[in-house]
Amino acid sequence: MLLVSFCLVGLHSCQGQSDRKQGEVLKGKTDAVMDTYHKPTAKNGLYLEAKVDGAKWIADWMFVDPDPDKTFNVNAHKGGEGGSVISFYISSKIVNEKGSKNFSEMNPVQMVDEKHNMFEGNEGGYQITNVTDNWIEGNFHFTVKDEKTGQTRQVTEGFFRVSIPNKWKKP
């Protein structure tokens, strides 16, 4: 929702400029806002690692949702703008129960590779293994498919640590 709002403001303020210039201005405004939510990863902080088709994959940075309500996006990036991404949502209910959840058509997992191929799937799931005052930790695994090419990716031995949203902390 935050991103949509900034895009609309950016579009309105770009009236009268060329399409290319409008796009550059909008991208600059959006990046300036979104960059504040990009956080580097560290073994003792935000972190995500997995094996993608057997090869080690460790996130360089993660996007932290500033105001999650009932779900939280685990959004991990490896490499710069042309890098790869692993993204899935976890539910506050599952976190509170320290439970597990399978991915589904209503809650798919997504992955983008370094060639910008988009993979999506509902095979696999995540399990919450530890919740503290500051962190949510869990394991995950999944298989995703690129509908255009038919290529699949298998992700195993996944581990994530994300900061617990302030809205989810108990008073």
Helix-and-strand structural type: alpha+beta
Return Rg in Å: 17 Å
| Ends distance | 26 Å
Strand content: 35-45%
Average pLDDT, all residues = 81
SSE series: HHEEEEEEHEEEEE
Percentage of helical residues? 10-25%
Question: How many structural units, i.e. domains?
Answer: 2
Report the major sheet: 11 strands, antiparallel
How many runs of DSSP E, i.e. beta strands? 11
Which stretches of 5+ consecutive residues score pLDDT under 50? Answer: 1-17, 29-33
Q: How many distinct helices?
A: 3
Task: Write down the overall geometry.
Answer: globular
Question: Can you give a write-up of this model?
Answer:
This protein has 171 residues and is an alpha+beta fold. The chain folds into two domains: 37 residues, no CATH class; 128 residues, no CATH class. Helix content is 20%, strand content 44%. Strands 1, 2, 3, 4, 5, 6, 7, 8, 9, 10 and 11 form an eleven-stranded antiparallel β-sheet that branches. A hairpin with a 6-residue loop joins strand 10 and strand 11. Helix 1 packs antiparallel against helix 2. The longest helix is centred in the first third of the chain and has 16 residues. It is globular and about 50 Å long. The two termini are 26 Å apart.
